[in-house]
Design goal:
The protein is mainly β. It is built from one helix and ten strands. The chain has a four-stranded antiparallel β-sheet with strand order 2-1-5-6. Strands 3-10-7-4 form a four-stranded antiparallel β-sheet, with no helix packed on it.
């Protein structure tokens, strides 16, 4: 059984026991969060109807609330003018472990 959940502006495919990184949530380490569901697949049964999905929820436990993504290097350069700029960015993430799909 797996589900497609909406988490932080993205959609993620999750199963029970999966550990995923989502955009920063307002939850602290050890707290439980709940994600809205977009689709549920249980064997050959696929649930898409909004009325049925309103009854389903995906619960997850926050494993790390201060994770960071990979560093992205941003470089700007203009030829013959001496203009060069370097900048870096690391996205702030929250790591969660899926505990239940019910």
């Amino acid at each position: 059984m797996y589900a497609i959940v909406k988490a932080g502006g993205h959609q993620e495919k999750v199963e029970v026991g999966d550990v995923i990184a989502v955009n920063r949530l307002a939850a602290k380490k050890g707290e439980t969060v709940e994600f809205p569901v977009a689709l549920v697949v249980d064997g050959a049964k696929v649930t898409l109807a909004a009325a049925d999905l309103a009854k389903v929820s995906v619960k997850a436990e926050v494993v790390d609330d201060e994770a960071k993504g990979p560093k992205i290097n941003i470089q700007k350069f203009k030829n013959k003018t001496g203009v060069a700029r370097r900048k870096g960015h690391r996205q702030q993430l929250t790591t969660v472990k899926i505990t239940a799909i019910a």
